[in-house]
Amino acid sequence: MKTNPTSMIRRSALVLLASATAALLTNCNKGDKAGGGSGDTMRVGFAQAGAESAWRRAETESVKAEAEKRGIDLRFTDAQGKQDKQIAAVRDYIAQGLDGIILAPIVETGWDEVLGEARDAGIPVVLVDRGVSVKDESLYATLIASDFVSEGKMAGEWLVKKSGGSAKIIELEGTPGAAPAIDRKKGFDAVIAGESGMEILASQSGDFNIEKGKEVMEALLAQHADAVTAVYAHNDDMALGAIQALEAAGKKPGTEVTVISIDGGKAALGALVEGKLNCVVECLPLLGPNAFDALEKIKAGEKLEKWQKVDDQLFDAENTTKDFVDKRPY
Ligand code: GZL
């Protein structure tokens, strides 16, 4: 029977539509359970805290580049500093039935419920760079992060040595409630408390960013310009903001006022070589390889340490050259 061309097109269109629908349904069904997805491509969600600092952007780049290198299907969310957005992103990854979730928690608290949902869905959560305070540590597979208390202690001990135990300090704190802000303060303040000749004149949050760090430093200089001899910033970006504020106030950062920061990015190390910043405690952001190693070990059924501690080092004028800084990857 001769079939007219129109009905041929319609039939093949119907066949096409049917097979496409079937494929779609199969995919959807597969996606409902953890581990769904085509073949053995690992599908991972990365709920990033934000893009508030050079350090944070370097971390994001590290995770994305490593996913690309390993052929991992990465879904990414920038929560723009808002915990509710970060929680919504984790819920979205759970709904997609991904194989794993990487989370850089903006603040320590408020994670029990959504991490419980991920565990119930059989989706492992790897924490990078910041920890959480939860009732049950089985809610996350592992934390890959530096020891922030030790970083604060390293900064404090360096200042004691440099100042001969005599300093009037302005402290610029990170994001309120964030693990690095809490613990870098704890480590540093404990060292200063043991030194009778050292005093913290004021301590306020600059939220880990340059603009806020500058703004807070300007306000604190209005009260403490004549007394301050040192600035301790919980990260490079706030230290760079403070340097701008000091110069605007006619002060010489790096000589008249000692400046200390944590992170170790190119911009801060450049300021160190320039003599405007005196000490930078490194906190490594290139955690992409570690995060995916952890997820692959979990997939292979390996048990992980609860805290995979990232080692830090300290940079100052004695061990930092322009050549070294130029070669830094971030
Ligand atoms: C540290 C990280 C901090 C950096 C800041 O692991 O959470 O957040 O020190 C960043 O630069 O904003």
Q: What's this entry about, in short?
A:
With 330 residues, the protein is α/β, with parallel strands linked by helices. Helices cover 46% and strands 18% of the residues. The chain has 2 domains: 43-145 and 285-310, Rossmann fold, CATH 3.40.50; 148-284 and 315-326, Response regulator (Rossmann fold).
How many strand units? 12
How many helices does DSSP assign?
11
What class, by secondary structure content?
Answer: alpha/beta
What order do the helices and strands follow? HEHEHEHEEHEHEHEHEHEHEEH
Whole-number mean pLDDT: 91
Taken from the alpha-carbon principal axes, the silhouette is: elongated
Strand content: 15-25%
Please characterize this protein's 3D structure.
By secondary structure, this protein is α/β, with parallel strands linked by helices. It folds into two domains: 43-145 and 285-310, Response regulator (Rossmann fold, 3-Layer(aba) Sandwich); 148-284 and 315-326, Response regulator (Rossmann fold, 3-Layer(aba) Sandwich), CATH 3.40.50. Helices cover 46% and strands 18% of the residues. The chain contains eleven helices and twelve strands. The protein has helices at residues 5-32, 54-70, 83-95, 112-120, 148-163, 179-193, 210-224, 236-248, 266-274, 288-299, 322-326; strands at 43-48, 73-78, 100-103, 125-128, 142-146, 167-173, 198-205, 230-233, 258-263, 279-282, 307-310, 314-316. It has a six-stranded parallel β-sheet with strand order 2-1-3-4-5-11, with helices on both faces. Strands 7-6-8-9-10-12 form a six-stranded mixed β-sheet, with helices on both faces. Helix 9 links the parallel strand 9 and strand 10 (279-282). The protein is elongated and about 65 Å long. Bound molecules: beta-D-galactofuranose (GZL).
